[in-house]
């Protein structure tokens, strides 16, 4: 059953005519065809300008780089990994506590440096800290791999967890 108030040719439900009395599109450009080509070149030229891209975030307050802290963390992880290498060579019986403790700072330096490098690329952190942060990233990754490798080697060799008391 349909609505009895609707008639088949009701003008309220017809689409409006797109063309006017002269046959021109009412919603089209009013410029002649020759001028439209010259105007189109200017539209695409504006996209190359930096200010024409509003979706790029711009930060007013920039955070200072923390590359020094990241280098300290990565260096601490590297020192613990090197102490683990000394214990692995059995020069000193240090156990595998040190390389296990070095995993935390090394992983923290690596992950935080990765996040800082992303923030530097966006512009939230000052650009001058990029070289030191990049060094902390790679040093933290190397220290993490060293610590994990030493711990894995010590577990495989079934070495003692705690240092041997002389």
Quick overview:
With 166 residues, the protein is mainly alpha-helical. The chain is built from 4 helices and no strands.
Describe this structure in words.
53% of the residues lie in helices and 0% in strands. By secondary structure, the protein is mainly alpha-helical.
Distance, first to last CA: 99 Å
How many strands, what sense, and barrel or not for the largest sheet?
none
Rg, Å, rounded: 34 Å
Alpha-beta content class:
mainly alpha
Q: Give me the count of strands.
A: 0
Low-confidence stretches: none
Helix percent band: 40-55%
Strand content: under 5%
Show the helix and strand layout.
Elements: H1 33-45, H2 67-88, H3 97-122, H4 130-156
Features of this protein?
elongated; 166 residues; mainly alpha; 53% helix; 4 helices
């Amino acid at each position: 059953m349909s609505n009895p108030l609707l008639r088949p040719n009701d003008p309220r439900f017809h689409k409006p005519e797109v063309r006017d009395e002269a046959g021109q599109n009412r919603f089209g450009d009013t410029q002649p065809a020759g001028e439209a080509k010259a105007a189109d070149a200017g539209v695409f030229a504006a996209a190359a300008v930096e200010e024409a891209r509003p979706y790029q975030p711009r930060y007013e307050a920039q955070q200072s780089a923390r590359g020094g802290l990241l280098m300290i963390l990565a260096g601490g992880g590297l020192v613990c990994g090197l102490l683990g290498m000394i214990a692995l060579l059995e020069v000193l019986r240090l156990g595998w506590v040190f390389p296990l403790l070095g995993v935390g700072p090394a992983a923290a330096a690596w992950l935080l440096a990765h996040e800082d490098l992303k923030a530097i690329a966006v512009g939230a952190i000052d650009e001058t800290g990029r070289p030191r942060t990049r060094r902390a990233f790679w040093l933290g990754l190397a220290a993490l791999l060293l610590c994990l490798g030493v711990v894995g080697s010590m577990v495989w060799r079934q070495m003692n967890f705690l240092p041997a008391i002389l």
